[in-house]
Write a structure and sequence with these properties.
Elements lengths: L6 E2 L8 E6 L5 E5 L2 E5 L4 E7 L19 E6 L5 E5 L2 E5 L5 E6 L7 E6 L5 E5 L2 E5 L5 E6 L11 E2 L8 E6 L5 E7 L9 E7 L4 E8 L12 E2 L8 E6 L5 E5 L4 E5 L4 E6 L10
Antiparallel strand pairs: 1-5, 2-3, 3-4, 4-5, 6-7, 7-8, 8-9, 10-11, 11-12, 12-13, 14-18, 15-16, 16-17, 17-18, 19-23, 20-21, 21-22, 22-23
Pfam families: TEN_NHL
Organism: Noviherbaspirillum cavernae
Protein name: Teneurin NHL domain-containing protein
Length: 278
């Protein structure tokens, strides 16, 4: 049942859950339509900022703040929450104050991912690049950034790399970024582009799994090493403490594991079979 009821987890209600992240203390934070809500370690749901049913754009405190379309979440060491909202990054401090830390305009191409490192540098993805926002508010291009009309991805360093249709990103314990890219049909032919890519601390981009855009590619779900594996519209991605990646392979309806050396294994779901069975 949809709703926006706070309280004990068993009786709480949500309306339109989107992103989720966890703080160092174990508190879960979720985007619920136009609000940011928390589930504490003792099982209590609280609305921290915004109103589930009211759309808007106001920097304010707690329930007086308003958000438009909310996207990805990230949490800093001090408990500050960051969220993408249309073409902006908003900040929610532990005392409930909401402010805007980045208004993304050209040369950015819309926001499609967000994560934070151990030094509180934010990494913000647009469709074609990864941008780094320092705690002092300095914005710089970290990797990619070129809109290639042929949609041909290319590994490389910094702006020499070509990134295509970034969907999401995560960061591991040593500060290495991983991104998913998905393009079901390219502009030149019907080939697909569904990959997982790695970006190290020096901005070196490497495709570690999946098949980059090619006119002869077709969607698939085969496991395997590196580029022998297939994905079909991979989106969500996270990393565990051992360096393994877990990917929500959207159109395959699968959860896939990618090891640090690029071995892809399906760990849950049946390829292209929708359902809700445990």
């Amino acid at each position: 049942m949809k709703g926006n009821v706070d309280g004990p987890a068993a009786s709480a209600q949500f309306t339109d859950l989107r992103s989720i992240t966890v703080s160092p203390s174990g508190t879960l934070y979720v985007v619920d339509q136009y609000a940011i809500r928390a589930l504490s370690t003792d099982g209590v749901v609280t609305t921290l900022a915004g109103n589930v049913n009211e759309y808007g754009y106001d920097d304010a405190v707690g329930s007086a703040a308003r958000f438009n379309t909310l996207g990805n979440l990230a949490v800093g060491k001090d408990g500050t929450i960051y969220v993408t909202a249309n073409d902006a990054v908003r900040k929610l401090t532990p005392d409930g104050a909401v402010s805007t830390v980045l208004n993304a305009r050209l040369p950015m191409w819309g926001l499609s991912g967000l994560t934070i490192d151990g030094h509180d540098n934010l990494y913000v993805g647009d469709w074609y690049g990864i941008w780094k926002l320092s705690p002092r508010g300095e914005l710089s291009l970290f990797a990619g950034g070129k809109k290639d009309g042929n949609s041909m991805s290319r590994d490389g360093t910094g702006s020499d790399a070509v990134l295509v249709d970034i969907r999401n990103m995560t960061i591991d314990k040593v500060g290495v970024l991983y991104i998913t890219e998905s393009q079901v049909e390219g502009p030149m032919c019907s080939g697909t582009h569904s990959v997982v890519r790695k970006i190290d601390q020096n901005g070196v981009v490497t495709t570690i799994a999946g098949k980059p855009y090619d006119c002869f590619n077709s969607p698939g779900s085969s496991d395997g090493q590196g580029r022998t594996a297939n994905f079909f519209y991979p989106e969500g991605i996270t990393a565990n403490i051992d360096g393994n990646l877990y990917v929500a392979d959207n159109s395959n309806e699968l959860i896939r594991r990618v090891t640090p050396d690029g071995m892809v294994t399906t760990i849950a779901g049946k390829a292209r079979e929708q359902g809700s069975s445990d």
